[in-house]
Design a protein that fits this description.
The chain has 2 domains: 84 residues, RNA polymerase sigma factor, region 2, helix turn helix motif (Rna Polymerase Sigma Factor, Chain: A), CATH 1.10.1740.10; 94 residues, Arc Repressor Mutant, subunit A. The protein has 8 helices and no strands. The longest helix has 28 residues. Helix 3 crosses helix 4 and helix 5 packs across helix 8. The protein is elongated, with a radius of gyration of 18 Å. The chain is mostly helical.
């Protein structure tokens, strides 16, 4: 997915026009943000029709309440927050929910610090398969934070806002997740090469 950086001034103006009932503004919001929402949604639950339904409900909700909505500086962030809530509200009773971690590999990770390089170190199929397995075993919030950081390229402040956490807690969560993945990979790779 091509990373979308919001144009703060344009977003603010577009949102204001939408709130005043401008149909062209809504059409542009829908056109510009439908696919990023869809791509985000299928990372949480890889069921296309389910995600499409959730997105339609998000757009229906904002149309229905357009006059009473608050000001928005970053439309994508606002819509993703709304979609995330919608998806997880619907999934609360679905015990079979499982992130499809294979989709984490349809993109190139960025913001490569020393720890983040763990994702690039896995060159062969077996190692990537192990990483997928270990990612799938992470708690849901850890997987979600990694998805937002490395797939959507959100900064820590945006992730904190979406996950309703403080920034330092998000940094700690991502750090612990990567540290855990790295340790498990090293242990598994060492034991498979020794044994």
């Amino acid at each position: 997915m091509k990373h979308i950086t919001s144009r703060v001034g344009d977003d603010k103006d577009l949102w204001q026009r939408f709130k005043k009932g401008d149909r062209n503004a809504f059409a542009r919001i829908y056109k510009d943000y439908y696919m990023p929402l869809f791509n985000y949604g299928i990372k949480i639950r890889n069921q296309h029709e389910f995600i499409k339904d959730c997105i339609q409900e998000v757009f229906y909700d904002i149309i229905r309440h357009h006059e009473s909505l608050g000001d928005v500086k970053n439309i994508l962030l606002y819509l993703i927050t709304s979609l995330r809530r919608k998806i997880f509200r619907k999934l609360r009773s679905d015990f079979s929910f499982k992130c499809d971690t294979l989709l984490y590999y349809n993109h190139q990770f960025s913001d490569e610090g020393q720890e983040e390089a763990v994702f690039r170190e896995q060159d062969d199929y077996h190692d990537k398969d192990l990483l997928r397995t270990f990612l799938d075993q992470l708690p849901r919030r850890q997987k979600e934070a990694l998805l937002m950081k490395f797939y959507l390229n959100f900064d820590y402040e945006d992730i904190a806002s979406l996950m309703e956490m403080n920034v330092q807690s998000v940094r700690n969560l991502i750090h612990r997740s990567i540290k855990s993945l790295r340790a498990r990979l090293k242990k598994e790779l060492f034991s498979s090469r020794v044994g």
